Amino acid sequence: QAALQDSGFIGGPFFDNLSITTEGLNTHEGLVQQAHQLGLGDFQVGDAAEGKTLTLGEDCSLDSVKLSAVAAEAGGLLLLNSVRPNPFLGLSGALVTLGNGLMDRETKLRLHREVKPTVDTPLCPGCGSCLSSCIFDAIVFSSGRAMIDHKICVGCGECMSACHLGGIGPNNGMSIPRYQKLVAEAAGAVALKSLSGAANSLIHVNFLTPMPSQAGGSFGRDRFLKGHFGALMSTDPVALDQATWDLLIQGAVHGLRQWSGFLTEPTPLMERSEALGIGSRQYELETPC
Length: 289
Description:
Elements: H1 2-7, E1 14-16, H2 28-37, E2 43-45, E3 52-55, E4 64-67, H3 69-73, E5 77-82, E6 84-86, E7 90-92, H4 94-101, H5 105-112, E8 117-119, H6 129-133, E9 139-142, E10 145-148, H7 158-162, E11 168-170, H8 175-195, E12 202-208, E13 230-234, H9 237-249, H10 256-260, H11 267-275
Parallel strand pairs: 1-2, 5-12
Antiparallel strand pairs: 3-4, 6-7, 8-11, 9-10, 12-13
Helix pairs in contact: 4-8, 8-11
């Protein structure tokens, strides 16, 4: 907190939103408790109150999304993203925060409805890792193999990250690019709202931090390569995510999969975001002295 305030970017308050899971730290009380442990005194839960409905363009798949209350009322936002693998989006960076993280929980659920995972039965060893990761009780075992009840599943993807053999994937191959485009369109609505206010009212920071090798996915991973620790900052979330992606796959024989363990790449997300005018995939890295 002190470092951010010294940088001149923070006016407060700090905030975070509920995810589509509502257990442990992903509750109002849990987020407040975590913020207290981090020493964030001026903290709010972003969607504790009614959010603001944003209307999407005619060429978008959804007619509207709802921005969390604190984000909707802020004059500007500094969006801090700890970059992580994402089974549906390739990586969680600036665009995911803009088009998913800032939304209220109901909008997040709407976005995830079409990306329900399914079990590739021959690869399922019956280890139970996915079972323990699902807080919605959508996974059952039959004859020693996992099965997902899509009537209960909300599409959070936690089971995909938990599966050690990569035996769980999207139930429909076309759902991945569609979901990525939905997130891009939601991000576009937020960016348009921001552009109507002060210039550069959205500042994005992607933190590249080390992770345990077993965190998410099943493929052998190098994780962040030496020299890639640190942070990337931009007012253009598309350029920022493109630069982040390029750094992650640089020198990796198996590309993004070597880092994340998933086959998904963020190309549809960035292409749709660029087409909507959120930013450009062209960038130039500048290193501060």
